[in-house]
């Protein structure tokens, strides 16, 4: 049963097992290094963390990095979680660590899904973005292995200046690769990510509309990350199609859910309400530091000193992020703030204030429009 009250429990927990990675991605949030940090959470500390996660309504758990496969005990950690009944997925880097044996082990342990990143429809674009020649070919080979193992595959793509003009080709590739979910990330300038690499606010809106139209035609499901305002675009489209204005009734998050051609909502289940940084979402770093997300680098505590549940439920950072009425600027008065709320991590990266308005949203809320009209009439 998924948690309905994000004040108590998150919907998803991301654990950065290590920052070690053999790639040099241009956008890397973690600014990954080639070697593991000596103060990483140990296996025993990891088990205690998993116990705490399981006790918090058993949210979904994702192993990330760096590259999780740089930890020799990754499958021992995964087995401990799976044996407790936790649904675990993993996002390894496409490196020589991704062997057929590793993927077989993942399936034997019981990982629910394997996610790979593809940031371009060809080697030239993808390998440039990932900073490593051969990454595209290795990823394609690994996907073929997973198909042989009959293991569900998720493709992650970061939308940036590098691939904005190739999205139709990317969608075609995801379809050809027979993936269950395309998880589309919208760049947040943190870590190695640069604001100059981002697409414009107007281009965000254009991609959102394109994704909505695409979602009604393809076999795979589509999920966005750091693009909470995509929910608004979905709701606006649905209301236009039904002839209902957004102001005619209360806006509900379920209106933003999209089912793919399979009739399912992504295979692992979609959140019952909008997830945002610190609101249904929590990130644990390789050394145990706790953040609202990996893209919002404001530390709220450390699991070595304080249980994750206490940090998530009681930290001032987390509690403020779960109150959309505290948002500033147009986000604070927007009629979509309880289902959208904008990317809190992008607001922080651009303005230095995680409660400020989403800086890459073009929408003008009704309250702002009404106030302007009233002033114009004076």
In words, what does this structure look like?
By secondary structure, this protein is of the alpha/beta class. The chain has two domains: 12-315, TIM Barrel; 324-376, no CATH class. It has 13 helices and ten strands. It has helices at 43-55, 74-83, 100-109, 123-130, 135-148, 167-176, 201-215, 229-242, 308-314, 316-321, 329-333, 344-351, 366-376; strands at 12-16, 60-64, 88-90, 113-117, 153-159, 181-186, 221-225, 281-284, 289-291, 301-302. Strands 7-6-5-4-3-2-1-8-9-10 form a ten-stranded mixed sheet. Helix 1 links the parallel strand 1 (12-16) and strand 2. Helix 1 runs parallel beside helix 2 and helix 7 (201-215) packs across helix 8 (229-242). It is globular. Mean pLDDT is 86; it is low at 259-269.
What is the CATH C level class of the largest domain, in words?
A: Alpha Beta
User: N- to C-terminal separation?
Assistant: 53 Å
Q: State the helix count.
A: 13
The helical percent reads 25-40%
């Amino acid at each position: 049963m998924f948690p309905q009250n994000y004040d108590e429990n998150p919907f998803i927990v991301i654990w950065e097992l290590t920052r070690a990675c053999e790639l040099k991605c241009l956008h890397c949030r973690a600014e990954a290094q080639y070697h593991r940090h000596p103060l990483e959470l140990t296996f025993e500390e990891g088990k205690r963390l998993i116990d705490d996660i399981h006790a918090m309504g058993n949210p979904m758990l994702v192993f990330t990095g760096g590259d999780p496969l740089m930890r020799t005990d990754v499958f021992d950690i995964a087995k401990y979680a799976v044996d407790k009944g936790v649904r675990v997925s993993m996002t390894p880097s496409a490196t020589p660590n991704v062997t057929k044996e590793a993927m077989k082990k993942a399936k034997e342990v019981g990982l629910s899904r394997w996610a790979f990143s593809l940031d371009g429809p060809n080697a030239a674009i993808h390998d440039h973005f990932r900073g490593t020649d051969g990454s595209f070919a290795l990823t394609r080979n690994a996907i073929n292995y997973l198909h042989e193992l009959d293991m569900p595959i998720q493709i992650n793509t970061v939308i940036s200046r590098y691939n904005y003009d190739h999205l139709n080709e990317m969608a075609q590739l995801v379809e050809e690769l027979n993936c269950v979910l395309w998880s589309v990330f919208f760049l947040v300038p943190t870590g190695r990510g640069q604001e100059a690499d981002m697409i414009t606010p107007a281009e965000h809106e254009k991609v959102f509309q394109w994704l909505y139209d695409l979602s009604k035609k393809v076999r795979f499901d589509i999920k966005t990350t750091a693009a909470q305002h995509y929910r608004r675009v979905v709701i606006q489209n649905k209301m236009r199609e039904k002839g209902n204005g957004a102001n005619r009734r209360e806006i509900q998050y379920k209106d933003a859910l999209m089912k793919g051609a399979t009739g399912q909502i992504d295979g692992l289940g979609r959140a019952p309400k909008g997830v945002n940084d610190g609101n249904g979402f929590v990130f644990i770093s390789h050394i145990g530091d706790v953040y609202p997300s990996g893209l919002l680098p404001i530390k709220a505590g450390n699991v070595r000193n304080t249980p994750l549940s206490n940090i998530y439920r009681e930290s001032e950072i987390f509690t403020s992020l779960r109150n959309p009425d505290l948002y500033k600027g147009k986000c604070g008065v927007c009629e979509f703030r309880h289902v959208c709320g904008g990317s809190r991590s992008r607001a922080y990266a651009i303005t230095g204030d995680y409660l400020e308005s989403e800086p890459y949203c073009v929408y003008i809320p009704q309250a702002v429009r009404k106030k302007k009209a009233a002033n114009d009439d004076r």
